[in-house]
Amino acid sequence: MKIQDRVFHSKFTVRYSETDRMGYLYYGHYAAYFEVARVEALRELGVVYKQLEDEGILLPVRTFNIHYKAPAHYDDLVEIQTRITQFSGTRILFHFESFRNDTLLNTAQVELVFVDKNTGRPCKAPEHLVRLFED
Amino acid sequence: MKIQDRVFHSKFTVRYSETDRMGYLYYGHYAAYFEVARVEALRELGVVYKQLEDEGILLPVRTFNIHYKAPAHYDDLVEIQTRITQFSGTRILFHFESFRNDTLLNTAQVELVFVDKNTGRPCKAPEHLVRLFED
Amino acid sequence: MKIQDRVFHSKFTVRYSETDRMGYLYYGHYAAYFEVARVEALRELGVVYKQLEDEGILLPVRTFNIHYKAPAHYDDLVEIQTRITQFSGTRILFHFESFRNDTLLNTAQVELVFVDKNTGRPCKAPEHLVRLFED
Amino acid sequence: MKIQDRVFHSKFTVRYSETDRMGYLYYGHYAAYFEVARVEALRELGVVYKQLEDEGILLPVRTFNIHYKAPAHYDDLVEIQTRITQFSGTRILFHFESFRNDTLLNTAQVELVFVDKNTGRPCKAPEHLVRLFED
Question: Is residue B102 annotated as a catalytic residue, yes or no?
Answer without folding.
Answer: no
